Amino acid sequence: MTFATGGGLQGMSEVRVHISVSADGYVAGPDQSLENPLGVGGESLHDWLVALRAWREPHGLEGGEVNASSQVVEESLANVGAEIMGRGKFGGGPGPWGDEWQGWWGDEPPFHMPVFVLTHHEREPLTLSDTTFTFVTDGIEAALDRARDAAGAKDVLVGGGAGVINQYLAAGLVDELEVNVVPLLLGDGARLFDGLGPDLQLEQVRAIEAPGVTHLKYRVVR
Amino acid sequence: MTFATGGGLQGMSEVRVHISVSADGYVAGPDQSLENPLGVGGESLHDWLVALRAWREPHGLEGGEVNASSQVVEESLANVGAEIMGRGKFGGGPGPWGDEWQGWWGDEPPFHMPVFVLTHHEREPLTLSDTTFTFVTDGIEAALDRARDAAGAKDVLVGGGAGVINQYLAAGLVDELEVNVVPLLLGDGARLFDGLGPDLQLEQVRAIEAPGVTHLKYRVVR
Questions:
Q1: Best of A17, A192, A214, A220 to disrupt the B interface by mutation (most B CBs within 10 Å)?
Q2: Please, which of A85, A170, B185, B203 could form a disulfide with A89 given CB 3.0 to 4.6 Å?
Q3: Left (φ > 0), alpha (ψ -120 to 50) or beta: where does B95 sit?
Q4: pLDDT tens digits for A59-69?
Q5: What does pTM read for this prediction?
Q6: Contact call for B207 and A206, based on CB within 8 A
């Protein structure tokens, strides 16, 4: 690990993960596809989230609930200066890029910050409204360097999917991890912590009970 | 499912599970053995528990902490009239029984109630102090019938390991499930919810944050 990518070494900027997980540990169900980007049953992982005003307002939607999850969602959105995501989260299928696919989110993506997409295939940056997607082909550490530069004093969010989160965890590059445990079994799919083990030491920071979800926050111990 | 084994149909008696699980979903680590009955690293799943007065006192040990877990442990021990366990939890290795193996717990087992051990090999009942171990060879529903009879108006605990718990969950025979999530990765081993899926519907009853563990209680929705 170099100084430039060591989590928490550059002042207050941290690398954070906020992810919804089924009770059996999946962040997406089986058979992910264009029609089912989170796999069969995976959309239900976010039922608790999309019902909240704290999520609906920044997504331009009216109404919504206020409950014990609201604070957690506000915190998850606060002080984030850049996001890193895998190609699966950006979408468009495998292989070389065409120009057609512009992500799942339409002309007004909800990120409002620089986004770095990990991919094996080069593509020019794509700007939609106030979000610029930059496609990074030289690996997770390079993507983190660029995201840190873009985020400045703010934090970097590793947004998913599971494969990308697990890679950053395995590399020791994540500082804080919030797991939103949903009372739901998916049975198969993409698993958080897959391929990891006791070398990744966690400290429980807090747990918050909320309607239809429990928020478990961990810090990675170094 | 027959009337006799339908959870909750016989008055107030319920079938309950209380189990400690790593953040990556394992109730025991890899390579379970006589020396490592909970697998490599698995003992650490119970660090939070064995520190508590609420656990130490019924096990004949002095001292111990009182914290947010105390109430949860007291509840887990209260109103239980019989326990069902797998052969792995009772121990002694696979194959036909000798008379030598009398469980892991010495002459004063901590159960103080009838215990039903699921096994493929017949063995006469074994009484140690106020615990009688009865060996059941005709399957999980038969074991539950016998445990219900022994428990009377009290509840039946399905005590583990993971395989037995997963079988009772898959058969729709569990009413309540408390998962004690420990901030620890085991990476491999015996997984809670293995082989299950969305057919098992859970409702989150509560979540309690405590030192080094979070207690998630679910009810099975029928």
A1: A214
A2: A85
A3: left
A4: 889 999 999 99
A5: 0.92
A6: no
